[in-house]
Amino acid sequence: MSNRRFARTAGWLALACLVAAGLLAWYATRQPASPFAQEQAASVDPSQVSRGEYVARLSDCVACHSLAGKAPFAGGLEMATPLGTIHATNITPDHDTGIGAYSLADFDRAVRHGVAPGGRRLYPAMPYPSYAKLSDDDIRALYTFFMHGVQPAKQPNIPSDIPWPLNLRWPIALWNGVFAPTATYAAKPSQDALWNRGAYIVQGPGHCGSCHTPRGLAFNEKALDESGAPFLAGALLDGWYAPSLRQDHNTGLARWSEPQIVQFLKTGRNLHAVVYGSMAEAFNNSTQFMQDEDLAAIARYLKSLPGDPRRDGTPWQYVNADTHQDIPGAHTYATRCASCHGLDGKGQPEWMPPLAGATSALAKENASAINITLNGSQRIITAGVPDAYRMPAFREQLSDEEIAQVLSYVRSTWGNHGDAVDAKAVGKLRGHTDPASSSPIILQMR
Amino acid sequence: MELRINQKAYQVDADADTPLLWVIRDDLGLTGTKYGCGLAQCGACSVLVDGNVVRSCVTPVAGVVGREITTIEAIEADDVGKRVVAAWVEHQVAQCGYCQSGQVMAATALLKHNPAPSDAQIEAAMVNLCRCGTYNAIRTAVHDLAKQESA
What are the Cα distances from residue B61, in Å, to A351, A385, A440, B19, B84? Predict the structure, then answer.
């Protein structure tokens, strides 16, 4: 190749790169379309404020954007990501530090598409891949609530500690292009209204998949609706195993009736289980406030998701056990656990959950079993009243070895067939988890 | 609801999830059973339900309807309980005494299930907390009772 031809080729190449970079810059900072772009702020309808408050309950905004004892929605919750720590932002209508300057279209782009004014991309810790499903009406009501139902609070956002170049936001636009669909929920005509309402809440505002759907290598949820088998199939997140919400006998909801699902989400407990771990927060702040018909819709939808026996294993059945075995795990169980959970493992439903047949004792992932034993459960607060019973933390009382022994006993007794627990796994979780607070925590929305 | 406590029937008006301890102490005035931690950790509230030791602070009252409840007030009506209390007196176990009704319950339940427990079994079963530190006296008394049985 002659020098001139080389120079010409290099020139074209450079130009192509420049154009590509320009296109990328445009793509990665562009404002997505919003149906509200031309909309002027209308006068405030008080019923819209309370409707928006309900959408905020369904969406559990408060769980991340509020801290106990601080101004509602002023942000601050610390979230560990693989790249570093980020903090939930101030979403009060404060003009300087909150979202007071947001138009409805700005708000829509942030909530449904993860794009802040100016084109900056939000981290998908904000569950906009789910919120994308929210209806226009719900977005408008939510905006009205945040602008007129929430007190402005001046509290600057805390910058993330993610180092350069990992803190560049534009690559998220590419991630979004692959993993974050932008369409609102479209009702399935083949299903009835109840099912569709349930699908809408579960996939959209409820963002159940954020915890319950396994994630891929790019930290993307492997499915965002029932068309994908991994949807709500159970996932490990933040030291907890969020169980399957599909019709899996052992690790899912196959043994739960629709009224039992409703009762669980409404009161935090039923014959099978009591909320704990991250679900206790979801219950305290969100599900207990859902209307009965919405809970019924969720139950109907979840019961329509088929299980997978290959993933779930042999169906559990209760087996009588010799409760006086002379092994360390059995001794610890008899003295530390049986007061509440019973020597027969059947618990005291619906106040103290059974361990016989419990998901935590059947799932391959043992994180929830270890975590709840080390750290106990936080207070369940129903209608403003803290519950009488909660799981205490055993981290100061039992060694890694003792916890491994007792959990191995629990996971292999009464027909349970989870794997044995290794003391090293207990030690690992002990190192990066904290005991649950024994004080009731109530996050206010107003 | 009707509860059977110490061979007597009591009519009780309480929410289903009320801890048995509150019913025993506050509604029925049987105050020998003590409140310690409220979390089934210390054992001060131990009572017997159908001969098994149960921490009444974590026992919803609805769950014990129709079952036989024994509290410290009637433990000496039970043969094993009577021997335990006698050993407690002989070894002068109690100091402040707050945890001792629960300790007696735990020892009674152990010996009812296993009249001659091994040292390890005693260690494993007698886990109630005592802030006076009477553990040595408790251990001596229970070992003594276990020995009487195996002799």
Answer: 11, 19, 23, 6, 27
Binding residues of A: 61, 64-65, 208, 211-212, 337, 340-341
Residue B13 Cα to chain centre, angstroms: 24
- Rounded to an integer, the average pLDDT of A141-162 is 96
Domain that holds residue A113: 41-155+162-179
Any chain B CB within 8 A of the CB of A388?
A: yes
Number of neighbouring beta carbons within 10 Å of residue A181: 12
A78 CB-side CA count, 13 A: 5
Residues of B with CB under 8 A from a CB of A: 17-19, 39-41, 52, 54-55, 58-60, 63, 113-114, 120-121, 124-125, 127
Is the Cβ of A351 closer than 8 Å to some Cβ of chain B? yes
Say what the pLDDT of residue A397 is.
92
**Does any CB of chain B come closer than 8 Å to the CB of residue A339?**
yes
pLDDT digits (tens, 9 = 90+) for A332-364: 998 889 889 998 999 998 999 999 999 999 999
Superfamily of domain B2-73: Beta-grasp domain (3.10.20.30)
**Looking at the domain B75-150, which fold is it?**
DNA polymerase; domain 1 (1.10.150)
Are B55 and A334 within 8 A, CB to CB? no
* Mean pLDDT of chain B, nearest integer: 95
Domain boundary pick from A253, A284, A314: A314
**Cα–Cα distance, A175 to A72 (Å, whole number):** 31
pLDDT of A199 > 80? The answer is yes
**From CA A113, how far away is CA A35, in angstroms rounded?**
12
- Cα separation of A411 and A376, whole Å? 18
DSSP tag of A322: -
Among A220-229, A339-348, B113-122, the range of highest mean pLDDT: A220-229
Closest CB to A352: pick one of B58, B114, B125: B58
User: What percent of the residues of chain A are helix, what percent strand, and what percent coil, each to the nearest 5?
Assistant: 40, 5, 55
